[in-house]
Amino acid sequence: MEYNRDYFAGKTAVVTGAASGIGLALVEELLQSNAAAVVMADINSNNLEQHEKRLQEQYGNRVKGILCDVTREEAVQSLISDAVSFFGGRLDLLMNNAGAGFPGYFADMTNADWKAAFDLNFFSALYGMRAALPIMVKQGGGQIINIISGIAFTPMAQQSRYAATKAALNALSIALRTEYWDDNIKISSATPGTTVTAIWGDLEPPKSAQTSQQSASRILNGVTNNDRVIFGDDNDALGGAACYDTRKQEEIDAYLLHVARERRKGITAI
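The structure corresponding to this sequence follows.
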């Protein structure tokens, strides 16, 4: 998808979960769109060093990698502080992308399992916003994008933790969108759509899955439009529209029940 690259020219941006997949694609797209500087944060030191070096060879000192465990608030505070120093004092865009799928049967999950899922998929973004918002308020504006998932609108069996964390992050994003509107801070949630990334693990992604670059381009198009919820592909948009449509509840229940039964038999069903 084409988008208005001029929107990002001269801006500074922090992207978490940036050393692979959609996060890395977002970093590359922002640099190609002439962002002034981009900080890429990740916990995978090998991937981070590899891609930082590669991108610095292309874009020089406009890109910097920072090793960060986003489940620790003090680490996220340090990330944002170091990024703002690297940027020369201004933070225009924060993209909270770090996350994981957390599959499994509900009956097998402990409280520690639930905490781990919320620490990564929900609290990491909350920590990022808590660190970035005072800076953006003081400078007179900014933009925050929280990467959720279509699972927030179409929760599936054996993905209760994933669905719950992403639905919570979506609700937080929309609530803060109006809370900070008059501070000239734009806040949106964004689904990546069905995309070929490491989140699939050993499973085979569906043939219809898009590339990380395609997902990143569609997300950034939504960023330029300040969409309330940015849908990463058409299926996510349809799922979001149908989520609370009572006219479609039987159809949705039938589909999700089919998925649940197939997964119980050990068959991967999307």
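The radius of gyration is 18 Å.
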